[in-house]
């Protein structure tokens, strides 16, 4: 007489916690690391007054239908999720995030990842994630391409006259500037980081001071004390 195996009830299932750590491998080079950081910093500064998005990179996205950390996970180099809470996370756990997949993904190509990024990952982002826009960029040779999901399939995004690609999801252009992938507004203005903005303000202040010093020197040549001018 055989004995039937114990039935597993929903109460027996142990779901993994929502604060799973990412187990993504490090980026290939400093160029890749700096590029990823640049994209995150630019978007966070541009959207500093918004709290409805999450931008990160090189952390794991867990998307197992059975809610298991041991299966179905990927770690894009850069991704943005819209319509979610802006807060730090250790990883992106789909079943803890209302089932939201990224709206935009950017992979940074390298010799060791290019085939996967252009093949398997592109297929997963198209067929499983259904991510509306997918881009890749190689920091070494500046190869750059973008795709938009149309009727379930990725179609190439046509570049504008400057070679930039429009992201409808972000309402920004992506383009190569000084050998780096950058964001540009719809008006063509470069999206800066906070550090770049501070440096620009510093340079403007120095230029104003130089103008003031030149004016003061000219007045002194004319026998006028600039300190006496109100």
Structure description:
The chain is α+β, with helices and mostly antiparallel strands and 230 residues long. Helix content is 25%, strand content 22%. It has 4 helices and 12 strands, in the order αββββββααββββββα. The strands form 3 sheets. The chain has a 6-stranded mixed sheet with strand order 1-4-6-7-8-9. The protein has a 3-stranded mixed sheet with strand order 3-2-5, with no helix packed on it. A 3-stranded antiparallel sheet has the order 10-11-12. The radius of gyration is 25 Å and the shape is elongated. The termini are far apart.
Helix content: 25-40%
Number of helices: 4
Please mark out the parts with pLDDT under 50 across 5 or more consecutive residues, or reply none: 1-23
CA(first)-CA(last) distance: 107 Å
Write the layout of secondary structure elements.
Elements: H1 30-46, E1 53-56, E2 61-62, E3 73-74, E4 78-82, E5 92-93, E6 104-108, H2 114-118, H3 120-127, E7 133-137, E8 144-150, E9 153-156, E10 165-167, E11 172-177, E12 180-184, H4 194-221
Parallel strand pairs: 2-5, 6-7
Antiparallel strand pairs: 1-4, 2-3, 4-6, 7-8, 8-9, 10-11, 11-12
Quick structural overview:
The chain has 230 residues and is α+β, with helices and mostly antiparallel strands. Helix content is 25%, strand content 22%. The chain has a 6-stranded mixed sheet. Strands 3-2-5 form a 3-stranded mixed sheet, with no helix packed on it. A 3-stranded antiparallel sheet has the order 10-11-12.
């Amino acid at each position: 007489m055989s004995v039937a195996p114990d039935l597993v009830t929903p109460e027996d299932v142990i779901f993994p916690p929502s604060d799973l750590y990412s187990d993504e491998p490090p980026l290939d080079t400093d160029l890749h690391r700096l590029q990823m950081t640049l994209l995150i910093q630019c978007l966070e500064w541009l959207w500093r007054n918004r709290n409805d998005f999450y931008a990160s990179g090189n952390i794991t996205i867990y998307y197992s239908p059975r809610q298991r950390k041991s299966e179905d996970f990927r770690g894009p180099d850069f991704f943005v999720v819209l319509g979610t809470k802006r807060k730090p996370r250790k990883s992106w756990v789909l079943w803890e995030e209302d089932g939201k997949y990224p709206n935009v993904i950017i992979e940074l190509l390298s010799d060791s990842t290019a085939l996967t990024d252009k093949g398997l990952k592109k297929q997963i982002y198209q067929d499983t994630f259904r991510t509306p826009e997918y881009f890749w960029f190689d920091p070494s040779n500046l190869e750059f391409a973008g795709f938009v999901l149309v009727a379930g399939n990725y179609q190439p995004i046509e570049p504008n006259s400057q070679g930039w690609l429009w992201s409808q999801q972000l309402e920004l252009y992506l383009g190569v500037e000084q050998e780096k992938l950058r964001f540009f507004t719809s008006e063509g203005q470069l999206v800066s980081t906070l550090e770049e903005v501070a440096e620009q303000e510093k340079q403007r202040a120095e230029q104003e001071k130089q103008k003031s010093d030149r004016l003061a020197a000219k007045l002194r040549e004319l026998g006028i004390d600039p300190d006496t001018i109100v």
